[in-house]
């Protein structure tokens, strides 16, 4: 019997990826007056963001360093708020589907602590889900098996009683290897999610 549904966030509950790109970046240069390459090169193209994701480094500190390097008049907090706001695209179809489910539901995401708090608070997911499991606060990210083990331990359920809906194949394979039910979500498979939930007795 299915007791728990763990939803990935970006690319699943949050429809912020189109044609393989994060759409927040589309108007970055026009909005902030600085090159996107400057931002992505400093923030993402190094070990820095890997440390941020698992809580070994604070995103605010990283953005402060980039703001200083880029010579922006904006503060790190303003850049973070802009980024998070532009990256907020709740998937109305999936949210409507989630409201039809009686099972416990959580978010399982590779986000750092600031964005996890934004998702939970500013985006209102605390009213929709029971808990958010995020890489930053947990200190571990998918597809590490510890990530999934912490979720089932918290829920008090067996892996076979949990379903992961995720758009990253390594995460799906890791959960499946632990005995979870899984659904690989993308534009092509989206239409089969209801049938999968129905087959598992969730609908």
Topology summary:
Elements: E1 4-7, E2 17-18, E3 21-22, H1 28-32, H2 36-43, H3 48-53, H4 59-70, H5 76-86, H6 92-98, E4 104-109, H7 113-120, E5 131-134, H8 135-138, H9 145-155, E6 162-166, H10 169-177, E7 181-184, H11 193-199
Parallel strand pairs: 1-4, 1-6, 4-5, 6-7
Antiparallel strand pairs: 2-3
How would you describe this structure to a colleague?
By secondary structure, the protein is α/β, with parallel strands linked by helices. Helices cover 43% and strands 13% of the residues. The protein is built from eleven helices and seven strands. A five-stranded parallel β-sheet has the order 5-4-1-6-7, with helices on both faces. Helix 7 (113-120) links the parallel strand 4 (104-109) and strand 5 (131-134). Helix 2 packs across helix 4 and helix 4 packs across helix 5. The longest helix is centred in the N-terminal third of the chain and has 12 residues, at 59-70.
Number of helices: 11
Radius of gyration: 18 Å
Order of helices and strands: EEEHHHHHHEHEHHEHEH
Largest sheet, if any?
Answer: 5 strands, parallel
Shape: globular
Q: Numbering strands along the chain, what is their spatial order in the largest sheet? A: 5-4-1-6-7
Question: What's the pLDDT, averaged over the residues?
Answer: 96
Low-confidence stretches: none
Query: How many individual β-strands?
Result: 7
Class of secondary structure makeup: alpha/beta
First-residue to last-residue Cα separation: 12 Å
């Amino acid at each position: 019997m299915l007791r728990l549904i763990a939803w990935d966030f970006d690319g699943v509950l949050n429809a912020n990826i189109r044609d393989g790109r994060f759409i927040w970046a589309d108007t970055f240069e026009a909005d902030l007056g600085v090159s996107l390459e400057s931002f992505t090169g400093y923030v993402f193209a190094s070990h820095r963001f890997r440390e941020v994701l698992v809580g070994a480094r604070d995103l605010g500190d990283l953005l402060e360093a980039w703001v200083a390097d880029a010579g922006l008049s904006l503060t790190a907090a303003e850049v973070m708020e802009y980024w998070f706001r532009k990256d907020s695209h709740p998937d109305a179809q999936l949210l409507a589907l989630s409201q039809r489910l009686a099972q416990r539901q959580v978010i399982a995401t590779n986000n750092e602590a600031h964005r996890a708090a934004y998702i939970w608070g500013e985006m209102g997911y605390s009213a929709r889900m029971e808990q958010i499991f995020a890489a930053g606060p947990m200190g571990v990210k998918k597809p590490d098996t510890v990530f999934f083990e912490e979720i089932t331990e918290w829920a008090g359920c067996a892996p076979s009683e949990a379903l992961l809906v995720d758009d990253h194949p390594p995460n799906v394979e890791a959960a499946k290897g632990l005995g979870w039910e899984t659904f690989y979500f993308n534009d092509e498979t989206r239409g089969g999610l209801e049938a999968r939930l129905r087959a598992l007795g969730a609908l």
